[in-house]
Amino acid sequence: MTAVLIFIATLLLVITQPRGLGIGWSAAAGAIASLLLGTVTLSDIPTVWSIVWNASGTLIGLIIITLVLDEAGFFRWCALKVARASGGSGAKLFTLIILLGAVMSAFLANDGAVLILTPVVLALLTPLGVSKAQQLAFVMAAGFIVDTASLPLVSSNLVNIISADFFRFTFTDYALVMIPVDIASVAASLAVLWIVFRRSVPKRVDLSRLPAPDSVIRDSLLFRAGWVVLTLQLVFCFASSFLRIPISAVTLASAAILLLLSRKNRVVPAGKVLKDAPWSIVIFSLGMYLVVYGLQNDGATSLLSSALSRIGDSGTGAAAFGAGFIAAALSSVMNNLPSTMIGALSIDAASVSDAVRTAMAYANVIGCDLGPKITPIGSLATLLWLSLLSHKGIRVTWGYYFRLGLILTIPVLAASLAALALVI
């Protein structure tokens, strides 16, 4: 019970962040308690660090890239291009914004995508005279898609990176399985989002009120370099499967190139970008995983391992559905990052065949990527996003979010796991 109580207390600290403690030091407090009370030892720290360092570095690199490109006007340009491609149709604009969010999430990770896409979408809709109720439909769709579309690449979500490192999936192997799953997830997301919000989407919008796309570019050098850097980053990420290069090295190198280029015209404040980068994610990942590792050391994950072993006896497809829905349920109530860690440790300890273990590992990723959308506390990005909406004058109550999260998430989760069962 000691490890369980430390985990619950740490989770409460991470969610509430009292006195500005922040996610990093909140998790660190839990890790210190775990060390002092003996649920983990100093010898466990190198083991845990070997699991989280690559994921933390990758996310920091991607967030820096996102912040630099946003300052350069990259995403506003993309949004304006999307708006013009809609031809003034509200339905097309709604669909294209969702697809823009899916692309941003795939290549730049969900955490940065949701916090950048939301203000960009609001800046696009406000000149069009779209009402607050109609804006809510667009921003809820944007907030939902960045998580449900964060499946295709290892770098698309912190959950993916940690899982791929833990189970030793290469970037290419992971993509071959999860790109088809992501296509199913995006298609299902489009369907449910349209069913739920179709009455709130305006029939027509007046595009003449929008500025020309090129007018929002603040640094043309960075704007052009962004396309090249993102392309090369994707190429090298796939090459990392053969060259044995950590993905964090690729993303951090890409971020460094853009930061160096930003110094040429000095339009983009490199110092501000570095200050806003999520450095605390390193402390958070190490601290939270140490707390979760204490659960394993004290046998608290053995019940889940036993349940997964029994599910695994029913075959690969059933194992994928069972592990995926369990991961989603855990993510919705205890945050998706610790759920990823608990799921990975439990799957690794389960008495199942290698094929079933692989299916469960991918299903755990799907559940932990999509499950957080059921509740506001499912992911830290969602809590930050809801705070951002509040500051923008759009209030989303937890009750409304929970009802909507259930309606939207369950069918998309089922469709994604069905696609996995067909692919694996």
Structure description:
It is a single chain. The protein is mostly helical. The protein is built from 19 helices and no strands. Helix 4 (74-85) crosses helix 6, helix 9 (171-197) packs across helix 19 (398-423) and helix 14 packs across helix 16 (336-349). The longest helix is centred in the N-terminal third of the chain and has 28 residues, at 44-71. Belongs to the ArsB family. It is a multi-pass membrane protein. It is found in: Cell membrane. The chain crosses the membrane at residues 49-69, 90-107, 113-130, 137-154, 174-196, 216-236, 242-261, 273-295, 315-333, 400-423.
Largest sheet: none
Separation, N- and C-terminal Cα atoms:
37 Å
Number of strands: 0
Low-confidence stretches: none
Shape estimate:
globular
By DSSP (H or I, 4+ residues per run), the number of helices equals 19
Order of helices and strands: HHHHHHHHHHHHHHHHHHH
Q: How much helical structure, as a percent, in the residues?
A: over 70%
Strand content: under 5%
Structural class assignment? mainly alpha
Radius of gyration, whole Å: 21 Å
Mean pLDDT: 89
Family: Belongs to the ArsB family.
Subcellular location: Cell membrane
Keywords: Arsenical resistance, Cell membrane, Membrane, Transmembrane, Transmembrane helix, Transport
GO molecular function: antimonite secondary active transmembrane transporter activity; arsenite secondary active transmembrane transporter activity
